[in-house]
Amino acid sequence: xxxxxxxxxxxxxxxxxxxxxxxxxxxxxxxxxxxxxxxxxxxxxxxxxxxxxxxxxxxxxxxxxxxxxxxxxxxxxxxxxxxxxxxxxxxxxxxxxxxxxxxxxxxxxxxxxxxxxxxxxxxxxxxxxxxxxxxxxxxxxxxxxxxxxxxxxxxxxxxxxxxxxxxxxxxxxxxxxxxxxxxxxxxxxxxxxxxxxxxxxxxxxxxxxxxxxxxxxxxxxxxxxxxxxxxxxxxxxxxxxxxxxxxxxxxxxxxxxxxxxxxxxxxxxxxxxxxxxxxxxxxxxxxxxxxxxxxxxxxxxxxxxxxxxxxxxxxxxx
Length: 318
Fold this sequence. Notes:
Layout: H1 4-34, H2 39-44, H3 50-59, H4 66-78, H5 92-127, H6 132-146, H7 149-163, H8 183-213, H9 216-223, H10 228-265, H11 271-280, H12 284-312
């Protein structure tokens, strides 16, 4: 159970992280308006008349001073209205709700793959410290850290989609229908995203497990005649999870950022691809809405990490 003191700490943490979201969205608001180009001209084309340009600019409020646009934007956010996309002629809220499940599915799958690879690999490397298994896993993790998604993605497509024909090349489903996700289309982008995180977590798990395996309570557990499996998994691993959870919480934001590149490479219809397209089209409201949702997701993940801390390690409840 989460006590009242824990809830108070979580609430204070939420109050401290909200200014971060405000600052991020405010910086994006300023920077996107400083980028050269006019979204109205891009939408209407060079042959548009000045009257049409002026009317459409007035319709979207782009003829007002920047500070007024900023105030109107946050007033809309507080009322649940994120504005309307200039390019797609749809509400930003509807576009985010439509695309968000794709990014969430991709990010969670990549995180699951990273944990499934890193936990056993890190534990094995710690238990077999200095042996060939440990050295081999160190080389593999170093390779995973060195290869970025922008390089790994095309290689995976070339090998597994074009040469071997095991997986589809791009997209989210065969029919291309919105809301449908075929797991075969999810394999390559999630592996490309999760590879570097798996390498980071493997090294972190190894370091944390080595530190715990050298503690006095581990020697006591072995002296009592407990099996090595019980010593490692029931005693050392729970105490080593705290720094691992920290890295997972922090790296979740990196996965969201990496989703922008991954979704563009694999034509995955998520928020990351939507952000790239909206930036190129100077779609101000859509860029701000997407980044606001990503920032709020990161804040919620950090809050969830705090709750998991106290569930894994009861001492932190004090």
